[in-house]
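Most newcomers find our protein records easier to grasp once they have seen one. A record pairs a protein's sequence with a compact description of its fold. An example says more than a description, so a record of this kind follows:
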Amino acid sequence: MNISIVLAQALGVMMARIFLLLVCITPAIAQEVTVSGRVTVAPDQEAVPGVNVVVKGTTQGTVTDIDGNYRISASDENDTLIFSFVGYANQEEPINGRSTIDVTLQEDVEQLSEVVVIGYGTQRKSDLTGAVSSIKAEEITKIGSGIPSEALQGKVAGVNVTPSGVPGRQPNVNIRGVGTLGNNNPLYVVDGVFLEDISFLNGNDIQSMEVLKDASATAIYGSRGANGVIIVTTKKGVSDEPSFSLNAYEGIQNVIYNDFSMVNAREYGQLINEGLSNTGADVLYNPDTLGTGTNWFDEIYRSAPMRDYQLSFNQKTERSSYFVSAGYFRQKGILKGSDFERYTLRLNNSYDLSDNVTIGHNVSASWFNTDNPSNGALQWAYRVSPIVPVYNEDGSFAGTNNSGAGNPVAAIAYNNNETRGQRIVGNAYADIDLWEDFTFRSSIGIDFRNNQNQNFTPEYFVSPTQFNQVNLIDKSWERWFDWLWENTLTWDKTIGNHYFNILGGITSQQSSYEILGGTRRNLASENPNLWYLNAGEVDGVTNQNYGLRNSIASYLFRANYTLMDRYLFTATFRADGSSRFPPGKRWGYFPSFALGWNISEENFLADAGWLDNLKLRASWGQIGNQNILDYQYYARAGLGIAYDAIFNNQLQPGSTITQLSNSNITWETATQTDVGLEMGFLNGALNVEVDYYHRTTDDILITVNIPGTVGLDPTDANVGSVLNKGFDFSVNYVKDVGDVSFNVGLVGTTISNEVTDLGGREEIIGGNIGAGNSVSRARVGQPIGFFYGYNVIGVFQNQSQVDAAPPQFDAQPGDLIFEDSNGDGEVNADDRVNIGSPIPKFTGGLNLGVSYKNFDFSVDFAGIVGNQIYNAKRQERYSGSDNFDEAFLDRWTGEGTSNTEPRMSLGAGRNFFVSSRFVEDGDFVKIRNMQLGYNLPVEVSERLSLQNVRIYVSGNNLIYFTKYNGFTPEIESTALYDNAAQNANDATGRTLGNGIDRTVYPLNAVYRVGLNVTF
């Protein structure tokens, strides 16, 4: 007998005994009948080693040897034997007094087809050792948002998606928490091409998206996989006959108000008067004469149309396959003046040149036109007085008399900010079967983007604080070009009950970027046909032109080994060399290891009819991150007039160092451990998956400020560590009862986030909201980006209470009470504490579906719990004429009237300090999608010469259950103002801006009617 079979059997027996001891199973003691035989598989009657043979109702069992033979003892001649093997249906054979029983197993087609996409290949779900979740085509197209990654929300455990209301904008996607102070976005791999976003894709072209969450799954991507990987597989030709599909919908979008609104004119006048009285000033208004005034939200928001059309063709012949599609998507924004339009074309073809050689390509081309929304309109609609009309009597725009906010409608009217772009993403590949079981693949992929940006500001005058004296045109051209060349060799072999899949490869990649732009003033005409740089005057002209380039070279290796379809082992290693780091620091090495045990294939569980699957897996690994700007390890010099000098009557151009070099900057590394348990019950109807994850990110790459006295720009450095840990779980139940089929899906993730090291720094400050206020911090022992300010413990009700409290900023009755958190008897800046975190403690989703004959209905919920939002739009009241939201109506007006909302005050006084007053629960549950569909009966479709016709009605973001005082509790970390000058000194950019609401673009409720036709 083969020694490997002996070792395998010994290992199986040992593990089985351990398991039996843990669950207190008593072994059988009687052995009265001996049965032997041979096990083969259909259709070729090939012998099968490693088949489980168990006496039903007992723990007595054995496995077949290399020739498929077995021998087993039973306590009774009427016992039944159960034969089981992964990929084949279980078979029961009553002994009935027989001493020899030969069995032929039949393939379990459903089990064999359960294949998931992993890095550089596919793998049976039963052989998988990593944490991988999958979402299929029907779930992707159900959302219909135009941005495919939004379909992940509430569908995949461990993934938190924060969508944007801005048409065409990619949502923020975090996998298993926030692990770095820099870029937390996952890597997208579309048909083998590495990308940072997939907003250009038509969702109808996607076959599946796999989310790789742990190190075992992502380590094959090395330097790009630290924040997780999302593999996108687009559709291929599958139909034996030519097949066309039409997918189309028309929709309408509305603003989700959630009972949020600003005060009307009468209420505004009352509040302003009260604020003036509290400072001893005279009142301004007679509120009873003001009426309701202007609702600025009604003036800038609208119901907006949305549409999506896609026509595709696919066919698979003996030697080739074809998938061709063309799509059109248009979304007008609910904010007037914003719009997104996209055209897409896809060609996915493959050709078998011979029995051993296949070539193919996956190519996507897209063209988009974007009217970018006005930044000012969003912010000003919260702040402009409702007493101000939109227009003057002569039809001109009315001024606001507010130094910090202009007329929002005028801001939209004078906004001419457009982006036009083209993008080509794709690869060409060749698969060559070199020898038996060896496959060589070479693939060349590209990502080419070309954007044209144009911003024309006309000459106008609305008020002394909202005007432009000379028209201005600003134009720029941006070009990105990335190429990726990958060569891999795979050995895929089954030897007896041993399965090997070994992959090795070499890859290289280069990314380049260039921008060319300029501005001119005083164009001869404001006619859009003459918006060219040459139409403006030469005086005051500006121009810019610069570029970036980086490259990566990589070596990768992965070995998958399966023994008897029970014991699984995966080892992965990748070495990456990046030009973004200095010589001597460029190479990063990223290993991972994983083990799996298909417990349900053991003999002692072969007769457990209630159990279909039980698998335990564990993994450990390291993944890198090199998401910093290029050339950061070089010192930089700046040129300018300020550095010029005259020597010997001659002008000598000068320069100065503007950024220090950092020769020690190196890889950010994430180390992750994962332990998972997969369970299946009730003949595949119920499946449960639970994972525990523990991820530490070390040597975090961030941009740090240099002291202002030095006069240098910020520079990148490796600073600190962050820990994320928690549990993922998913539960799915599918059942057919007659003509009724229903499914229930539940996914959830717990998140515990903590900064564990900052390289000796006390803190890193971020979340700049203007006027010297920074909201967020990173500190050891705290969640990354927690909110930092005064803890409010009430409102002073009378002067006696003020006198008895620790002194604090000249407080008066009606002012907020700040906690003396350090107990030193005085309230000052040292008393600021953690007042909330934007990181949720739990994210999840519930998905329900039912179908009856030709009807189907589904409803999906998504939500998060345990996070806070800093409502900065309530705080930012720097002008005495700013408007107020309705929460201010609950203000303190005398003893006993309010213990949460202070008295009215105007301007940025003590009641507008950064404090817990502006921290609100971000918890929410929403109906993510609801859909009702109807399939025409087959006989009707056939009479119409169609294969299938489905019509449906659907809605997104229909209802929010939340207490948050705003349009939406889903606050994207990058709002429209993020590039404003006021945030230029925010050292950590987006991460420390999480959860801060400074008037983000609202999400929209969408109502759609759609049609799917196949012919």
